Amino acid sequence: MAWNEPGNQGKDPWGNRGGKDQGPPDLDEVFRKFSSRFGGGGGNFNKMGVLLVLIGAIIVWGLSGLYKIEEAERGVVLRFGEFHEIVGPGLKWKPTFIDEVYPVNIQRVNRLNASGLMLTQDENVVTVQMEVQYRIEDPHKYLFRVTNPDQSLSEALDSALRYVIGHTTMDNILTVGRDKVRRDTWEELEGIIEPYDMGLRVVDVAFKEARPPEEVKPAFDDAIAAQEDEERFVQEATAYSRQVEPQARGRAERMLREANAYRERVVLEAEGEVARFTQLLPQYEAAPEVTRERLYLETMEQVFSNTSKVMVDNKDGGSMFYLPLDKIIQGGGSAPMVEQAPANRQTSTSSSGARTTSSDNSTGRSSVRQGRN
């Protein structure tokens, strides 16, 4: 049964019996009873209580002003809502209700992504995803230059990416032009955020993904495979040319040097012949027969210098010939064949001047054959 129902004679929540008084107890009366228990008058207690409350409040206020700034952070201090200073890392104190401190991490690399379906220069649709990495350089500007710097940077990245994609063909986006798209997006993004002076510095822009729509993906996969085959063939041809070209250049250089050497040798020989003829002409004019005989002998000596035969002139008609064995032995060759020329004629002989000899294979002895007139 509730305490205030009819017929309830019990205590109510305020300590009244019989339910006659339904209101709360008098607070002043309760406070006077409490102060009287401590044996002091009401005025003295009020002064001491106020003093204790003030001291406690000052202690709590002083302790509440302690704060810590981490090593990677900087604290932006506002005094009565106005920028006051930027404090470094460490244990700090601020007057509570007067200063407010906003710690900002300036060493952490923050990341934002931008992605979506975008229209290319050649009126194709491509799905592109790009990530920007940035750091906070100026905490004050980061907090108070714009309302939401992260959201502003994300919108600037999306705008820059769509502008660059709209000025690039789809083949370049999917294949060889990815790095150029990344660099152009970076430059365009910095150009957009520079007037806002948000206190941010872009560290890197990463081109994460670029793909055609799923409906036409198989056709683009074939095109990419063909592009890769083309690049592979070009690289193989380049490697082959780098291998063959030095060899061809070496052969051409060798042939050129041989031709130059041959030309110089022929020219020198021709010049020598001309000089020899110039020197010989006066002698021939003075004594034609002697000069002609000498030229004949020099020519025959040159022709028979590498043969094993000896040319003798048997004008005496004798049958004995002197065989120069000492020169034959020094030559280290087999005994030369000596042939007798007819009388009053010159025939082929060896350069040693020996008469014609022949080897007898059965007896190992040398024999002399005498020519007859």
TrEMBL record:
Alphabetical list of SMART domains matching this protein: PHB (SM00244)
Subcellular location, record wording: Membrane
Keywords: Hydrolase, Membrane, Protease, Transmembrane, Transmembrane helix
Keyword Hydrolase part of the UniProt annotation: yes
SUPFAM superfamilies, A to Z: Band 7/SPFH domain
Region (Disordered): 1-26, 333-373
Pfam families given in the database record: Band_7 (PF01145), HflK_N (PF12221)
Residue ranges annotated for the Band domain, each copy included: 64-224
Biological process annotations from GO: proteolysis
Gene Ontology terms for molecular function: peptidase activity
Skewed-composition ranges (Polar residues): 363-373
Residue ranges with Low complexity bias: 347-362
Protein's membrane topology: Single-pass membrane protein
Annotated TM spans: 48-69
GO cellular component assignments: membrane
Family: Belongs to the band 7/mec-2 family. HflK subfamily.
Binding partners and assembly: HflC and HflK may interact to form a multimeric complex.
Role: HflC and HflK could encode or regulate a protease.
Protein name: Protein HflK
High-level lineage: Bacteria, Pseudomonadati, Pseudomonadota, Gammaproteobacteria, Alteromonadales
